[in-house]
Amino acid sequence: MNNESKFWKIVFGSGSVTACNMLRAFVVNKLLAIFLPPSFFACVGQLQNFMTAGQAMSSLAMQNGWVSLTAQNLDDRKKLAGIWRGGFKLTVFAFIFTAVLAVAFCFLAPLETLVPGIHPRLVQAAILFSLPGILAMNIITITSSVMNGLGEYRRWAIIGIASSLLQCIWVAFFLYTGRLGVLSIIATQSIVAGIFAAQVARGAGFHFDVIRTSVLDIRSPWFAFAAMGILPMLLNPIVLTAIRSYVGGEFGWDAAGIWQGVWKISDFFASGFSAVLGVVLLPKVSRSLTKKEFWSMFNPILGKMFGLALVVVTLMFLCRRLVVALMLSDSYAAVADYMPLQLVGDFFRTGGWALGLVLVAHRETVKFLVAEVLSNVYLLVGTILFSKMFEFNGPMIAYASENFLYFVCLFFVVRRLKWNTP
Hints:
The chain has helices at residues 3-35, 38-59, 63-72, 77-108, 111-114, 120-150, 153-177, 182-188, 191-202, 208-212, 222-251, 253-280, 282-285, 291-318, 320-327, 335-361, 365-390, 394-415. It has 422 residues and is mainly alpha-helical. The protein is globular.
């Protein structure tokens, strides 16, 4: 099979799994949009950001490390088991710390301000319920990442597809029966899927017994990946929470719900392309390459991904009212008016993701973190400044310009990277 055919086979294979993940997100958000008004929808977004931050802290956001380090050590199973043991122990310590912090957050944070309109007791219950949900999300993320690194694409696909279906069934069942509150349903949706993912990964040799019996305990390579993963995963939901609170305070919480709808559609796009890049690109750039070998491999992939992104962005722009009607509800019709600017940002975000993965695989920790911090700060400050000038278009203008600048800056950074051989 030639490289062109192999590339598109991987793209469409990973795309089918991504499509299931996007379908899961679509079903969950569609159900929430039907059952909830825009103001409550924005509050659910706040909880989802809390959970994203919790997962980042409890897993140390090392999913790229699980892929990259597994791919790098495939030929040395003894060392690979030690790598897994080191990553597992760090994750356990991080989860315990996160659980303690979550309990403190329940009783010390101003929940009535962060999640207005919902009784603080209900929010506290949802945060506590989210702990087993976060643990399950970590299991899904780690097992699927290891399957990617091992080249076990069939098992990776099974975990991705089945996890999406199980989460959809969980949310739909409890929303229909009303046996759990909406926030608690969102908090616990990954539990069954996590148990299933662990069983699938066991068949490929990744399970607790292998980790427990390893004579090696290798932790040092994980710290760079943890730093590059946890800061963006913590910073991004914090920035989004701040933006949502600003939009709610400046334009009203119904407007915050509309912005949440715009962002959710953008998230579908981003999750799709980031998942494909994680399978197509990350294992390749994790290997030792010369500068010439890297650019001869990377440039065609970047060009193809931009071409694919252009097609998807164009279709979403032309069908944006239909997209809003399908993914949200009639209450969110105004979302279509603000999608074009957001789609510009989504297009350039594809290139930024690709270049960012190169920095991650090469453990360029400082460069990556500086880029992530500056881009998130720009997004927040830009939202405030552009909102003063362009009113409710401000957040979308900030997002579009932030992703364009991120791509351009990272392109020059990657071109200046040092390589083992000229």
